[in-house]
Each structure stands twice: as structure tokens, then as C-alpha cells.
Amino acid sequence: MIIPKLHYISQGNASKDILENIQKACTSGAELVQLRYDNVSEKKYLKLAKEVIKITTHYQTRLIICDYYKIAKAIKADGVYLKKNTTSPTLVKTHLYPWQSIGGTANTIEDCEKLLDAQIDYIFLGPFKDSSETNSVAPILGMAGLTTVTTILKTPIPIIAFGGITTEDVTALLKIEISGIAVSDAITQNFDSIKTFNQLLSASSTAEQRHTFE
What we know:
The protein has 214 residues and is an alpha/beta fold. 39% of the residues lie in helices and 16% in strands. Helix 4 links the parallel strand 4 and strand 5.
């Protein structure tokens, strides 16, 4: 599997809103959608995920399930993303198909090293800025914090920055060896921005930097 440089993290308080936003994202050219549906039962998440994968499959958009790895396997999503301090990536790996990817959250170099030890496929590093999408008590890293981690880490594993990222931030982030970005607020507010993000990231299907999984 190739990891796109732009990840859209879905937004919406109700399943109807989430579906509508994912539909708009896929129509606007999103290559990967991460399904977020917080504080609901696994049954409700599964019901929504089944609807979402119909949309993403139609548009050939990759679908990543947040935390619910059993659902990711059941609907044959492209992978699972694990929030910090949830399930062990090592455990999750035993439940998934070999072709499914696993991403994890990091806020420090130590977090990154633990994820690398667990043979994770990509790292979400942040938050870059404070925003509604971070929903986190982790310290804000800013450009200085991200730079410190990427300079020390030196890993071929893709590092995806997250947290309040706008189109104005992309060029500077790419200079510090960030592989890609995860965006929620800026895209949900303007789905046309996906095209701009892709252009800034050179993330078209022909020009994107390709990362393959073992």
C-alpha cells in the first residue's frame, strides 16, 4: 500500500454529517480518509463504517479506521489508526490482514521510538498547533518541536504531521522532512482546499512520494 501525503480526518457530530463530509472529500479528490466517530459504541461505529466504505470504494479512496481494528478487518478497510495509549500496535497486527496498515500517534521522540519498535507503518506526529481536531492534552509541538523530532529520529517510516494545519503551513513542514500531513478543520471548512493541499504536497497519484509496506 502507498501512503498518500494528505490524510483527511473526518468531522461531524452525527453519522449523517460525517457521511456527507466524507462524500465531499472524496468528490474533491481526497486519496485517504480516516474515519473518526468518537464516543459511540462499536455497533454504531460499524454501522457507519459500512456506509463509509461504500463511498470510499466508489471513489477509490483509501479508508483508515480509527482504533476499532476488528471493524477494520471486518469491512476490509485499508488499515487502522491508533490513538495514543489505546491498543498495542503489536496486538493489533496479529488481528489484521498482512496488507492492512497500522498508524500510531506520537508526541515525543520516545513515543516515536516505541512505535518504530512495534514496526508501525507510519507515525502521526503532533499536535503541530492547537485546534478543535487535536482533542488532546499533549503539548503543542510547533515547528520547533517537530523539527527536533524529525532531526533526531532519521527514519524511513513516513511521519505525518497533524494539528491545525493549513495550506500556509505545508511548504515549511516539507522542509523538515515531514512525509505528509493530516488535516480536518481546514478541509471541512473548504473541501476545495484538498486540491491546493495536493498541489503543495505534489501529492497527485503520479507525483506523490511512494512508501510501500512490507
